[in-house]
Amino acid sequence: MRALQEDKLVPAAQLNAAFVRPKFPGQVQFAYYQAGMFCRFIAEKHGFEKILALLAAFRSGEKPDAALERVLGRPLDDLDRAFRAWLQPLTAKPMSAIDLEWRKPRPRKELEAEAAQRPQNFFARLQLARALKDDNRLAEALGHAEAARELFPEAVEAGGPYELAAEIHLARGERDKAAAELQRWLRAGGHDPQIARRLAALLMDLGRTREAAAVWEAFLYVAPLDADLHQRLGEFYLEARRGAEAIREFAVVLALKPVDQAQAHFNLARAYAAAGRRPEARREVLAALEIAPGFSPAQKLLLELSQ
To answer: 89-103 as b/e, with b when 16 or more CB fall inside 10 Å?
Structure first.
């Protein structure tokens, strides 16, 4: 955000250099942000097919500058001006809300005075919400957390306004509103697996299993090696009688070499049985019993498969 405030955007012709020869601390991370927004700009103003055309041009060895001008049909200087004009209204509100000097902890009285004088100060509102929550002044805390979220909707990191507002709702016994807040976090681009896991668990507690599964499915792309995630999805698919998907998830769990190998083989056997694939189910249940001969649920399944 500081780089935006200091107008450190680089021309499209220099964007690649920002990754390999950064000129200020944090420029590599900022270059990722700028490149992502530049792709979004191209998709919105020229169509997503132009992104694909540019990828094809880069693959064929065409230089980025020439490819951009040819594919988009406009000079680079014109492209840079159009990108800045497109980006400015998108970033104006959060840029005015972010004062990095207020990231450091401040006394509550100082936070209250700043929030009253400058209600658009994101960090002051967020810190004040946290302080009021700790004092059990939940209604006031929620107001400041929601205000912080509106000031900077992109703040989806852990400890941000979405998570804080959800915690306040839970403290007030409002589980449905807490779930709605975390779903809002997800739509805003939240990608922390721990927060997603809390959202899914909350939805399960509320009996909204399909929505919980949708959260797990989305986070397979974020945490593909999370065995617990695959386990939970496998159980959901099994209960929903979606045998093929359950097989996929339990097979992944087994491939990740969990501590309880017998249970992993047994779960995969259950999925194969649900899908009507009895020979594979028998193979997996025998593998479970080879590891744990006294595993009674596996013994019972083997008996059912043998009848």
So the answer is: eeeeebeebbbeebe
Q: Is residue 110 part of a domain?
A: no
Can you state the percent helix, strand and coil of the chain, rounding each to 5? 75, 0, 25
132 in any annotated domain? yes
Task: Please tell me the predicted confidence (pLDDT) of residue 20.
Answer: 84
Question: Do 265 and 304 reside in the same domain of the chain?
Answer: yes
Residue 22: per-residue pLDDT: 83
- Nearest CA-CA partner of 236 in 254, 203, 215, 213: 213
Q: How many domains does the chain have?
A: 3
| Tokens found for residue 300 | 């019972």
pLDDT of 6: 66
Residues 179 and 237 in one domain: no
Alpha-carbon gap, residue 150 to 157, rounded angstroms: 15
For residue 120, count other CB atoms closer than 10 A to its CB: 16
Dmax (CA) of the chain: 77
Q: Distances from the Cα of 12 to the Cαs of 6, 65, 70, in angstroms?
A: 18, 8, 14
pLDDT value of residue 90: 84
Position 5 scores a pLDDT of 63
pLDDT at 11: 86
Low-confidence residues of the chain, pLDDT below 70?
Answer: 1-6
Burial of 271 (0-12, 13-18, 19+ CB in 10 A): buried
What is the pLDDT at residue 149?
96
Q: Which of 196, 220, 244 is the last residue of a domain?
A: 220
pTM of this prediction? 0.74
Residue 100 lies in a domain: no
Q: Which amino acid is at 62?
A: E
Same-domain check for residues 49 and 123: no
Distance CA 78, CA 209 (A): 50
Q: Which domain holds residue 172?
A: 116-220
Q: Look at residue 263 in the predicted model and tell me its pLDDT.
A: 97
